[in-house]
Amino acid sequence: MTAGWPRSVAAVRAARHTWGPQARVEFTPPVAYSNPMDDYSGRTLTADLSDASDSARALRGPFLRFGGKIACLGPVEVIATDNDNSLVARSLREAGDGRVLLVDNAGSRDCAMVGGDLARAAHENGWLGIVVHGAVRDTVELREVPIAIYARGTC
Question: What are the angstrom distances between the C-alpha of 75 and each of 46, 50, 89, 102, 144?
Answer without folding.
Answer: 12, 15, 18, 10, 23
